[in-house]
């Protein structure tokens, strides 16, 4: 649907290796291809890393829709706003290859640990208890 935003259509030729597309466009195409398959487990590595704010919102909306059809999603991301947007129920924080923290994102925000520090650097604060719907 959003491919028109790229100036492309579903039957557009983009060339071998998607060379005619920007990094963000290639990333959006790769995510769309993964979502079309409706996998039971969706694995994503920094799905919004190469995207501008508008494209990030589009991808997050697509991921929210995918979560309705996908049983599980495992995502690596440094953008903690994406975690909140997707209403993630469990975060695992790794440090030097080992689990440093694990829990609900809102709980981790209150601990003062690694996740909380990263969130603070990104301007993310804990929600009030009544705002947290688990």
UniProtKB/TrEMBL annotation:
<dbReference type="GO" id="GO:0005743">
    <property type="term" value="C:mitochondrial inner membrane"/>
</dbReference>
<dbReference type="GO" id="GO:0005524">
    <property type="term" value="F:ATP binding"/>
</dbReference>
<feature type="domain" description="ABC transporter">
    <location>
        <begin position="9"/>
        <end position="49"/>
    </location>
</feature>
<protein>
    <recommendedName>
        <fullName>ABC transporter domain-containing protein</fullName>
    </recommendedName>
</protein>
<dbReference type="InterPro" id="IPR039421">
    <property type="entry name" value="Type_1_exporter"/>
</dbReference>
<dbReference type="InterPro" id="IPR027417">
    <property type="entry name" value="P-loop_NTPase"/>
</dbReference>
<dbReference type="InterPro" id="IPR003439">
    <property type="entry name" value="ABC_transporter-like_ATP-bd"/>
</dbReference>
<dbReference type="GO" id="GO:0016887">
    <property type="term" value="F:ATP hydrolysis activity"/>
</dbReference>
<dbReference type="Pfam" id="PF00005">
    <property type="entry name" value="ABC_tran"/>
</dbReference>
<dbReference type="GO" id="GO:0015421">
    <property type="term" value="F:ABC-type oligopeptide transporter activity"/>
</dbReference>
<dbReference type="GO" id="GO:0090374">
    <property type="term" value="P:oligopeptide export from mitochondrion"/>
</dbReference>
């Amino acid at each position: 649907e959003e491919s028109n935003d790229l100036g492309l259509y579903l039957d557009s030729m983009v060339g071998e290796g998607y060379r005619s597309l920007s990094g963000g466009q290639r990333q959006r195409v790769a995510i769309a291809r993964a979502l079309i398959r409706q996998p039971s487990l969706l694995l994503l590595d920094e799905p919004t890393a190469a995207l501008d704010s508008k494209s990030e919102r589009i991808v997050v909306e697509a991921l929210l829709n995918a979560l309705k059809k996908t049983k599980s999603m495992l995502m690596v991301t440094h953008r903690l706003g994406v975690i909140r947007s997707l209403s993630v129920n469990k975060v695992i924080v790794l440090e030097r290859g080992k689990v440093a923290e694990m829990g609900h994102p809102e709980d981790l925000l209150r601990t003062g640990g690694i996740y909380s520090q990263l969130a603070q650097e990104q301007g993310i604060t804990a929600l009030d208890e009544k705002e947290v719907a688990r």
